[in-house]
Task: structure prediction
Amino acid sequence: MLPAPTTILNPTAADDQVCWLNGGFVPLATATVPVLDRGFIFGDGVYEVVPVYARAPFRWPEHRARLRRSLAKLRITDPMDNDQWASLVEALVTQHPWSDQFVYLQVTRGVAKRDHAFPDPAVQPTVFAMTSPLTLPSEDLRRRGAHAVSLPDERWLHCDIKSIALLGNVLARQAAVDAGAVECVMYRDGMLTEGSSSNLWVVRDGAVLAPPRDHRILEGIRYGLISELCAADGIPFMVRPILRSEVESADELLMSSATKEILPITQLDGRPVGHGEQSGKPGPIGQRLHAGYQRAKTQA
Ligand code: PDD
Result:
C-alpha cells in the first residue's frame, strides 16, 4: 500500500517539489535511480501524462487503462493496482500548490545487469511519478493558431505504446522548433500519422477526419474525447487514412494533447491553412471542439 504523505509541503520552487520513487515520496531535486536502470540503459519503460484540473485528474480511468495496455505490450508487470495508482496520483497532487497540474508517471522494467533480453527472473519495476504546473497554450497562441512543419515519420512501428524511448519524437519536435514551429505534421507512406507529442485532426467539409488507431499513432486520451465531443455537437467524425494532399488542402488542422488540449494549426510549412476568409485563422469546428473541451473539464 502507499504510505500517507508525512508532510504536506507547499512548494514554490522546484527544489521543494516531491516525487514518488519506488514506494515513497522524496524531494524531486535529489531523486535518483541506479545507472543500470533499464529505462536509462535501453529506454525500456512506459509513461503517462495526466492533466489535472482544479486538483482532479481528468479522464483518469482512460489514462490508467492506457498505462496498463502499454505495460502489457512490453510485458512489464503492472506494479500497482487501480486503487494504488489512484491514491498515488491523489497524494502527489495534494502535496503541490497548483490547482491545475500535469502528472507524469513512469514505469521501467527495473534495474538489472546490462543485457538486451528481459532479466530472468524478472526484477522489480521502477516506479516514478512527479507533477508540474499545467501551463496551457496562451490566449494569444490560441487566437493566432500554431505553426507546424511537415516531416517524414521516421519512428518505429509500435507508436501505439506510450514508450519512454522517444528519440524519434524528440528529433521531430526539435526539427519543428528549429523551423520556428510549435509542432510537426508527420507522414508515413504518404498518410498522416501524428505530431511529435500530439494527435492531429483534419477538418474537411464540416467533418473531422481522424487517422486510424493502429500501430502508427499513439491513441491519445483526447482521441476518444474528441469523438464524443463531435457526436454531442453533431459534427461528423470519420476515422480513415488521410492523404498528405488532404492535409494540405484542409479547411482546418487541429492538434490535441494533455498539455495543449485542442489547438488550431493555422500555418503549415509557411502557408496558411484553410480557405477564403478563414485562411490562416482558427476555424469554427476547432472553436466548437475547444468550447466542448472546456465544458467537459468542468463536468468531470
Ligand atoms: N504526449 N501522440 C503522441 C506521440 C504523444 O506523445 C501524445 C501526448 C499524444 C496525445 O495523447 P494525449 O491526448 O493522451 O495527451 C499523441 C504527451 C502530452 C507528452 O509526451 O508529453
Notes: The chain has a mean pLDDT of 96. The chain has two domains: 14-133, 139-298. The radius of gyration is 20 Å. Residues 49, 169, 194, 197-199, 218, 220-222, 256-259 surround N-(5'-phosphopyridoxyl)-D-alanine (CB under 6 Å).
